[in-house]
Amino acid sequence: MRTLWRNALLLACDDEHGTTPFRGDLLIDGSDIVSVTDARPGPTDDCTDARPGSRDVGTDAETTVVDATDLFITPGLVNAHTHSWEVLMRGTSEPLPLEIWTLLSYPPEGVEPASDRLIYLRTVVAAVEALLGGVTTVLDDTGELPMQTVESTQALFRAYDDAGIRATCAASTVDVPLVDRLAFAEEVLPASVVEASRAALTDRDGLHDDYVTLTETARAMAAGFARIRVALSPSAPMRVTDEYLLDCARRAREAGEVLHTHLLETVLQRELARTRYDGSTIVEHLDRLEVLGPNLTAAHGVWLSDGDLELLAASGTSVVHNPLSNLRLGSGMLRWRDLHDAGVRVALGTDGASSNDSLSLHEVMKAAALLHTLDDPDYRRWPVVGEVLEAATVNGARAAGWGDRVGSLTPGLAADLVVYDLTAGTAFTPLHDAARQLVLAENGSSIAQVWVDGRLVVEDGRCVQLDADALLAEFREESSRYLEEQLPRWRALQERFEPAVRAAYLRAWGGATAEGEG
């Protein structure tokens, strides 16, 4: 079945049009975009100018023709960094530094495994929220406590597939004891805690073997789903040994998959790197290990040096900017203009629903466009709308490992589309610059339809591939039952360790402030 949108306002995000909207026709056939025609007069045609690579398939009884005069069609948005686990923890804390927040959202002990059904429901909630906001692809850094299993992975895949979204699922892993992931740990924590933490993680070979087996099984399972891919995710360089990191990097390259990690999210991580890597930065260390590369997607990248930017750009590494999470956790400010000037590919992410409380990429786009007006008085260096849109589409697609299929309105790519109604609400009224208003005015309420792989998955504010209302009601019941006993224990653990972690946190910021003044 084919669908032809006539006279739509299009945002192609391709090499020819970039992020400049134009009037044209869009034809999809099955799962793919077949043609995009530009209605602007060309040098030899006063009516239409067919895009290179388009083919005119005509219209017939099997083609649904839509008058799209009042519609604005864009590529599906890409959330290049999120954590579906955190849907369980939405709204459980005030804004807190990452190292204190994580004690509650990712408790290091005392976690009973969630049922496979709860994992399915939790993932459906994340997928529904993403789709309703125009996100058609996610990179989910899947944390499963106390550990991920084949069964939990299957539940994750089924949830994303049932919702109709496209997903790269990265099984996050660590093999370094908790205390060795915290700067100044031996100085701020009791010796008994340090010893117990290191004793708790002794069988690294077994952990490594289990992760490799799980990843290989997940890869085989993903082959049975059209819109699911997997990635390896050593959680962060300081959370894994070099041997573990190198093995993950090798396996990801051999499989042609994304290697995902967290990079310099907080000042404490930067301080830890100074002692861990003998004065080198984390990025310099990754370069020596030959881990940097076009398949590496690094979330956050807040505390990067000038030399780091050059190495990331030269290697083709993607950096995923999570402005709202960085604000909520007080992590710091990504160097937006410096990354772009250096040539680093920047994508966008919401992070999880506990470090952000929302999975709206529309909110992230607006935050990315406006936040960096505060860190540079030269307004000529502030983010421009086109950069933000590229980060949310084509750059995000590459970072999530789907650059071969999505990210722009290009013939031959998958029909992952967001259809906005220009007459719904006020975001596009009056219409001056659709791209600018998409980033600065639209909040997702003008979305009329969302398509993934040529299938309609959202229409008039409803996910049409499943009964979202029933599943959300079931999730409320199941999550409440699961957290009723566990959440108080996790809060007690956070309260127990907060004073020591707070001391390390303030010490690190004191050093950062002194360095800045110097």
Number of helices: 17
Shape: globular
- Name the poorly predicted regions: 43-57
Q: How large, in whole angstroms, is the Cα Rg?
A: 23 Å
Kindly state the number of beta strands.
18
Biggest sheet record: 10 strands, mixed
Instruction: Give the N-to-C terminal Cα separation.
Output: 65 Å
Assess the beta-strand content as a share of residues.
Answer: 15-25%
Arithmetic mean of pLDDT = 92
Helix content: 40-55%
Structural class: alpha/beta
Entry summary:
This protein is an alpha/beta fold and 518 residues long. Helices cover 40% and strands 19% of the residues.
Could you please describe the fold and organization of this structure?
- It is a single chain.
- The protein has helices at residues 98-105, 116-132, 150-163, 185-188, 191-200, 204-222, 242-255, 267-276, 282-288, 306-315, 323-328, 336-342, 361-371, 385-392, 394-399, 434-440, 468-517; strands at 2-10, 22-29, 32-38, 49-50, 63-67, 71-75, 77-82, 135-142, 166-173, 228-234, 259-263, 296-300, 318-321, 345-348, 417-421, 447-452, 455-459, 462-463.
- It is an alpha/beta fold.
- Strands 1, 2, 3, 4, 5, 6, 15, 16, 17 and 18 form a ten-stranded mixed sheet that branches. It has a four-stranded parallel sheet with strand order 7-8-9-10.
- α2 packs parallel to α3 (150-163), α2 (116-132) packs across α17 and α13 (361-371) packs antiparallel against α14 (385-392).
- The chain is globular.
- The N and C termini lie far apart (65 Å).
Keywords for this structure?
single chain; 518 residues; alpha/beta; ten-stranded mixed beta sheet; four-stranded parallel beta sheet; 40% helix; globular
